[in-house]
Amino acid sequence: MIQSLPKYRSLSRLLSPPVLTLLLAISALCALLIGAYSLPVQQVGLVMGEQLFGLEAGLPQTLSYLVWDIRLPRILLSVFVGGGLAIAGAAVQGLFRNPLADPALIGVTSGAMVFAVAGILFSASVLGAIGSWLGYATVTVMAFTGSLLTTFLVYWLASSKGYTSVVTMLLAGVAITALGGALTGLMTYFSDEDELRDIIFWTLGSLGGANWQMLALLIPLVLLPAFILWRQSSQLDLLLLGEREAAYTGVNTQRTKWIVIGCAALIVGACVAVSGVIAFVALVVPHLVRLIQGPRHRSLLLGSALLGGLLMVWADTAARTLIAPAELPIGILTALLGAPFFIWLLLKTKRSL
Amino acid sequence: MNRFLIHFLGILTLGLSLNACQNAPSATEQATQEASYERLVSLSGSVTELLYELEQGDKIVGVDVTSTYPAEQVTQVPKLGHVRQLNVEALLSLQPDLVLAERTDEASAALQQLEAAGVEVLWLDGSFTLDKPLAQAEQIGKKLGLNEELESLRKTYEADKARLQQARQAMEETPTVLFIYARGKGSLMVAGKNTAASAMIELAGGQNAVQSFEGFRALSAEGLMEAQPEVLLLFDSGLQSLGGVEGLLQIPGLAQTPAGQQGHIIGMDGLYLLGFTPRAARAAVDLSERLQALPDAYTLN
């Protein structure tokens, strides 16, 4: 897998960053036009004109709200969540030199889950004042806090005397994930009907709650760490040779580990907090890009971010239209598409090796 | 590339301005329409039922997943899923002019988006009392300007309440009833104080077997022995999920309770029994009568 497979060379050119960017922009535009509420193209255009250039189109409030405050934030959210999850996945896979590594494995997701479920259960009672002040953002804030705390717990468990063992981190992540699962299960067991519904819906993932405030918080929390990750590209490349070898070539491996884990935790924590659990994007997308473009992180990270956003835009468009007027949880959709694709990918690479 | 972009933008702005001219009149027409409520969305099973009782059924354009009664009519209406997992855009596409929701769902982000989109939401206050359906009916009636319908609903309901009074007077003793909320064998909860189940049991002239805690808790064999219920009350669907009466009695501890030994097990429809719908008084009469006729309610074999 180290070298790009020759037969994908043409694909590689086809899916280069500029092309992917263009595809992403086109997809976002298409998604803006598709929805359960059938709107003619020109109406969508008018709303955009109204909001961006201050045109006076005199559209009903519902229409402009629908396009500008419901559809558009949701599409942007899917771009950033998809892209964020995928770039974090690519970086973590590089750091662990393990294609199975997924940000979920370092405890981010399970920590977010434990705290989110606690937020759902106790927002009214124990959290009291804080809960009522945060309102329905309680779960989001709790999930983000939980993901960061767990990641640092895992990191701390794997570190001693200024050295962090990547293998120990993976094992600690597995243990913490199991613990998180148990805690979540315990709380689920004691939840009542409504709480159980909320918990289940949260674990299935949804981008339904998208709004501009959410985006204003999420975008910096994804873009900044993503940029920092991207700047670590050459260090991640050298780490592929092995940790000691990378250190001999002058990479400060400890610093790289810290940066990659911290940034991945920030990104995934923020994404999970706003959208719930969305499976397989962080695992599958980097694989796909690695297969097409090879393992160089500069293009891998960028390609993953773009492709992740692209796929998520379409997944969410499907989630909100397939069974309208109801809504399909997006986590189910990504797992449903991601798992078979991943198996296909495994079989394909097995044959070509 | 640049020239292409300029052409593209040019065409785009031309298209937009043309359409602006076409669309402006229709938009103002929509705005001048007066506010009468012709397209209703109900996000609660008991509210849906109220709307049908108030003869507003033909105005309902969408309901949530808990709206199951009246079955024949409500299956014709688009289902919007669960109130906590709403597709706001799809809901808007039904073009409702009034959305009716329970006050308890007020924190829902989706419903807040709906209000922000300019859709009017009527928040209905709920409680676990016999007065709830009437109070909600009054809220709805006031909003939609229904007087006769409200009056006739009130009459029927008062008659039901009178029947409940009679049924309760006819009761000789106060059986202790345990409500079990079952979602299959692995998930059994019992209702404590301050629950809809406990309220309904007391309305029907029984006593909730659990007095030691509030809300729902997982059922345990020892807790069952301690509660010593004389009657077990379940949803029909819950009883089914356990494999009927036989399956229920295989649960450790259940067969040892007085209820289990005598086969005093009552199954009722969930929305009917605990929805505090306009049928609430009737449901209480029903439960009360079944509590009196116990040995025949469900017998073993």
> What is the tally of helical segments of chain B?
15
Main structural class of chain A: mainly alpha
Tell me the total number of β-strands of chain A. 2
Count of helical stretches of chain A: 16
Spatial shape of chain B: globular
Account of the 3D structure:
The complex is a heterodimer of chains A (353) and B (301). With 353 residues, chain A is mainly α. Helix content of chain A is 76%, strand content 1%. Chain A contains 16 helices and two strands. In chain A, strands 1-2 form a two-stranded antiparallel sheet. In chain A, strand 1 (159-160) and strand 2 (163-164) form a beta hairpin. In chain A, helix 5 packs parallel to helix 13 (253-275) and helix 7 runs antiparallel to helix 13 (253-275). Chain A is globular, with a radius of gyration of 21 Å. The termini of chain A are close together. The mean pLDDT of chain A is 86. By secondary structure, chain B is of the alpha/beta class. Chain B contains 15 helices and ten strands. The model of chain B is unreliable at 8-34 and 296-301 (pLDDT under 50). In chain B, strands 5, 6, 7, 8, 9 and 10 form a six-stranded mixed beta sheet that branches. A four-stranded parallel beta sheet of chain B has the order 2-1-3-4, sandwiched between helices. The radius of gyration of chain B is 25 Å and the shape is globular. Chain B has helices at 2-32, 45-53, 71-74, 88-93, 109-116, 132-144, 148-170, 196-203, 221-227, 236-241, 244-249, 258-262, 270-274, 280-292, 294-297; strands spanning 40-42, 60-63, 98-102, 121-124, 176-182, 188-191, 207-208, 216-218, 231-235, 265-268. Chain B folds into two domains: 40-160, Rossmann fold, CATH 3.40.50.1980; 173-300, 3-Layer(aba) Sandwich (Rossmann fold), CATH 3.40.50. In chain B, helix 2 crosses helix 6 (132-144).
